[in-house]
Amino acid sequence: ETKDVELAISHDMIQHERMLSAVRNLLANWAECQESLGRKLDNMMTCMMEVVEYYVDEAQDENDWATQQQEWMEYMTDIYQMCSMELYRKQCLCQSVLLSVGDKVLVGQEMKWGGNEQMGGVTCPHKAISKCCKEWSMSSKKSCVDMERLREMTKLANVSKGG
User: Fold this and answer.
1) Average pLDDT, the chain
2) What's the rounded Cα separation, in Å, for the pair 160 and 54?
């Protein structure tokens, strides 16, 4: 019977470690995607600037097309900045969960922690996870993604595509 309990706890701890590893991998992949997005944005902006500069030089006047392209550059930059800040915010949330993991992960919330949010510089695992769950969504008040601005940009994209 004691052996069964030990096996169950061992299994749970292995699963817990796998989940923490998956979180680390997810954040690493997300950071790589964000970096790639930044390079693509830089390339697109360079290309767009060259095209706008050529078009304006050839047309000898500032026109709606060039203005629209500049607006697109601003929108793309806004999206990239929102995504970057959101990634950083979520990295911080995950970091608080990862730092809360330790020998006390199996200790109940009120046992040993006494309701304290931190003890010895370590956040109570239950509180760290609860905070992460509450604040993770982009609809959270803490989110760096301006959903209204994103909808506005999506509408503009659909209009310019003729959709």
Assistant:
1) 80
2) 21
Name residues whose C-beta falls within 8 Å of residue 83's C-beta, 6 or more positions apart in sequence: 34, 37, 145
Task: Enter the pTM of the model.
Answer: 0.73
> What per-residue confidence (pLDDT) applies to 92?
92
Residues linked to residue 122 through DSSP beta bridges, in sequence order: 119
Side-chain-side CA neighbours of 39 within 13 Å: the count stands at 5
Dist CA 133 CA 66 (whole Å):
44
Provide DSSP, 43-78: HHHHHHHHHHHHHHHHHTS--HHHHHHHHHHHHHHH
Task: Round to whole Å and give the CA distance between 163 and 156.
Answer: 10
Answer for the pair 134, 140: CB distance below 8 angstroms, yes or no.
yes
Q: How confident is the model at residue 63 (pLDDT cuts 50, 70, 90)?
A: low
Cα separation, 143 vs 88, whole angstroms: 11
* pLDDT beyond 50 at 31: yes
